[in-house]
Amino acid sequence: MSKTVFNASKAPVDGGKQFVRVRSVTEHFPGLKTFVFEADGVRTAELAPQKAGNYIAVTANVRGSRVTRAYTLASSPKEAGSGIYISTVKKAGILSGYLVDEVKPGDVLEVSRPDGKFVYDADGDCAHIVGVAGGAGITSMLSMAKAAEEGSAPYTMTLFFCVQNAYEFLFKDVLDAMKSGKVKVVYVVENGAPEWAESGVFTRELLHKYVGVKSTLFACGGDALYRHIARELADDGLIGNMKFSANSVTDRADAEGRVFTLTAHVGGKRYEVPARASETVMTAMERAGIAALSQCRVGECGFCRSVVASGRYTADAAHDSRSAEDAARGVIHPCCTYPESDMEIFAPEDPAEKEL
Fold first, then answer.
1. Residue 32: in which H helix or E strand, if any?
2. How many angstroms separate the CA atoms of 298 and 192, rounded?
3. What is the mean pLDDT of the segment spanning 229-237?
4. Are 253 and 165 in contact (CB under 8 A)?
5. What's phi and psi for 355, nearest 5 deg?
6. Which of 55, 59, 214, 290 is most buried, most CB within 10 Å of its CB?
7. What distance in Å separates the CA atoms of residue 180 and residue 160, rounded to the nearest whole number?
8. Residue 95 contacts by C-beta under 8 Å, 6 or more apart in sequence?
9. CB atoms closer than 10 angstroms to residue 179
10. Residues in a beta bridge with 162
């Protein structure tokens, strides 16, 4: 097969990459930090525009692995326009651990342009939106609240910020300073709620207590929160439509501990690497340090879009956004595909790797 057949990525020719310098780092709790990024001024002169609710994907070489993970932005469109991105990172995996433990002001990182489908659509969404944030999920909700407050977005907003304990409220000072009347914040605490917060969890009753107009609901948090909201608001006439911020694909159970051989053609090079049945094809390439192009990690962006030459595989059903035509052609998104046998694939290279 010719290589052009396998040039399946929908990514920009430059990979959509930027290079940012860490301006500042703020630690909220052990293992939770907020980073402020600016253009590095060398390979990136100014930051690409951002929509409220977007993410950036950070790529770094960590202990021999080339890893990419997506992090939601807490900055607003105007803040991005003024030259900064803001993102909060919770230590949970190899890249987040590297960012929290090792990255300091002045360091330069490779990041994507802001992207994502978790954004307001003036044609399809209501003029009022309801945000439900679970813990650190406040980041994208804060971006949306800032956009309403600063006037860069056309909606008004009621934001339900839900945590287990009151000390977990991040950016409370920023939220409390919003006085335009465009954003109403409702704090919800499960354990020992103070007098200024609602006690318990987000419910239909709580929604109707604070919201009286048809709304689009945006939620950012864990999958358990999403299932709760879907059950709680099933057939609720107050909600026109619901949007959930996608969570990354994780490892799956494989009791047999199967390990296959993945043959990957990337950037004109051929690699043979071990691929565990429990991990995604992209994770196997990352562990081997292969500079394969990756971004969203949830099967949405198409940057890692690849073609299978041989082998069996399973696409994660919750994240499989391929068209029927792509599925029939053997096109996969390695970020949400698990190997079921030895495999051979042709995957796009990260163009930014050539600049490093």
1. strand 32-39
2. 35
3. 94
4. no
5. -90, -15
6. 55
7. 18
8. 58, 60, 62, 67, 68, 69
9. 8
10. 134, 188
Report the SS3 class of residue 316: coil
First to last CA, the chain: 30
CA-based radius of gyration for the chain: 21
Burial 251-267 (b: 16+ CB within 10 A, else e): eeeeeeeeebebbbbbb
Report the amino acid identity of residue 58: V
Nearest to 105 by CA among 44, 21, 27, 30: 21
Find all residues with CB under 8 Å of 178, minimum gap 6, and list them: 145, 149, 185
Token couple for 220 = 């950012």
In the chain, the amino acid numbered 276 is R
The pLDDT of residue 5: 37
* C-beta separation of 199 from 193 below 8 A: yes
d(CA 109, CA 89): 14
Q: What is the pLDDT of residue 1?
A: 34
Sheet of 269-276, strands arranged across: 269-276, 259-266, 343-347, 306-310, 331-332
Using alpha carbons, select from 33, 21, 39 the residue that is nearest to residue 82.
39
Which amino acid makes up residue 294? S
